[in-house]
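Page 42, continued from yesterday. The earlier attempt failed because a stray header line got pasted into the input along with the sequence. Redoing it now with the clean sequence only.
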Amino acid sequence: MSSGLVYLFEHPGNPAFPNFFVSLYFTLTTLTTVGFGDITPISAEGRFIVSVSILAGATLIPVQLSSLANSFGEELSDKNKATLPEIALGPWQCRHCNEPSHRADAAFCFRCGVALRPPVSTDATQDP
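This time it went through. Structure tokens are written below.
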């Protein structure tokens, strides 16, 4: 849109803007902060449009990049949640450091390294 407005205001009095594509080139080099300096607007309207475009780009581009980064972060977070299995915790406590939670498949305490023993069951229905 800004390319069209720059062309509209600069083409009649500025020979550096002979067609829309030159205006597009100027706008892209300006908004991407490359700014070669080979073309410059000379009318007050053209300079105003370029100034507004620069300010809009300086405020909108970081917001859009932040939104894009958040989307990627949420997608990666969702993938990690979907691929990581739930870790089952065993019902025993370390006899040395009293750490109450261990993985169900743990043979040693993750905190102190002492070998874990499964709890003694008091349920009479279990087979010996």
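Notes: Helices lie at 2-10, 20-31, 44-83.
Reminder to self: strip header lines before submitting.
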